[in-house]
Design brief:
Distance between the termini: 14 Å
Number of helices: 5
Order of helices and strands: HHEHEEHEEHEE
Structural class: alpha+beta
Strand order of the largest sheet: 2-4-5-7-6
Strand content: 15-25%
C-alpha cells in the first residue's frame, strides 16, 4: 500500500459508505413501490373474488408500474456492482465517459434532494485512460458535490468529457454560483491528495462558471 492509499484511506471509506447508503435507499424505495403496487393488485383480486369485474386497464397500469420499478432496481444494482468493482485494481484502463456517467447516476439522489439537474454530455468518441478507478470516482464525486453547491439559480450542472490536444479532461459547467464560492476553499487538501495520486490538475474558472479537471492518460509507474 502506497502513501496515496494510506492518506486517502479514511476519506475513501467515508465516500464508499456514503454511496453505499444512498444506493441502499434507492433500492429500498423501488422495493417499497413494488410492495405497494402488489398490495393494490391483491386488493383487486380480492374484489374480483367477491364478484366485481376486473378492470383490465387498471391491471395493465399496475403491472407496468411494477415492471418499471424492477428495471429501476436492476439498473441501481448494476451501478452498485460497477462501483464496488472500482476498488479491485489500483491501476486499470477505463473509458472516461462511462466513469463520469456512473458517478452521475450515483449522485442523482443527492442532486434530486438539492433540486439540482445533472446534465450529461457524452463524448463524441470514447476517451480511454489508465488510472486508479476508485480514486477517480472519489475525486469526481467531490467535484460533483462542490459543483452542485455552486450551481446557483440555474440549478443545473453540466458534465462534459472531452479529448483535447493537451489530454483528456472533464468539465463541470453552468456553475452560475461559482463566483460567490469562498475563494481558496476548493480544492481542499482531500482533493489535492487525490489530484496528486491521479497526476491530475483542477482549475476553477469562476468567470466561465466551470471546473476543469485535466487528467493524465496513464498513471502507471
Amino acid at each position: 500500500m502506497d502513501w496515496h492509499h494510506e492518506t486517502s484511506g479514511w476519506s475513501g471509506l467515508q465516500f464508499f459508505g456514503k454511496m453505499s447508503a444512498s444506493i441502499s435507499h434507492e433500492i429500498k424505495n423501488a422495493l417499497a413501490t413494488i410492495n405497494e403496487t402488489a398490495g393494490l393488485l391483491e386488493d383487486l383480486t380480492f374484489l374480483a373474488e367477491k364478484g366485481k369485474p376486473l378492470d383490465s386497464e387498471r391491471l395493465k397500469t399496475l403491472s407496468g408500474r411494477i415492471m418499471k420499478q424492477v428495471r429501476r432496481a436492476d439498473e441501481i444494482v448494476k451501478n452498485m456492482n460497477r462501483f464496488a468493482h472500482s476498488i479491485d485494481d489500483s491501476v486499470k484502463s477505463v473509458e472516461l465517459g462511462e466513469v463520469l456517467k456512473l458517478m452521475a447516476a450515483l449522485s442523482e439522489r443527492f442532486a434530486s434532494m438539492r433540486g439540482i439537474t445533472l446534465e450529461m454530455n457524452p463524448p463524441s468518441s470514447p476517451v480511454a485512460i489508465t488510472t486508479d478507478p476508485f480514486f477517480l470516482n472519489h475525486l469526481l464525486w467531490r467535484c460533483v458535490d462542490f459543483a452542485m453547491n455552486a450551481a446557483g439559480q440555474g440549478k443545473t450542472v453540466g458534465l462534459l468529457t472531452e479529448e483535447t490536444e493537451n489530454g483528456p479532461r472533464i468539465r463541470f459547467t453552468r456553475l452560475e454560483g461559482l463566483a460567490e464560492a469562498p475563494a481558496g476553499t476548493f480544492p481542499a487538501q482531500g482533493e489535492k491528495d487525490l489530484l496528486d495520486a491521479l497526476k491530475a490538475e483542477l482549475r476553477v474558472d469562476a468567470e466561465a462558471g466551470e471546473l476543469v479537471l485535466a487528467l493524465s492518460r496513464d498513471i502507471s509507474p
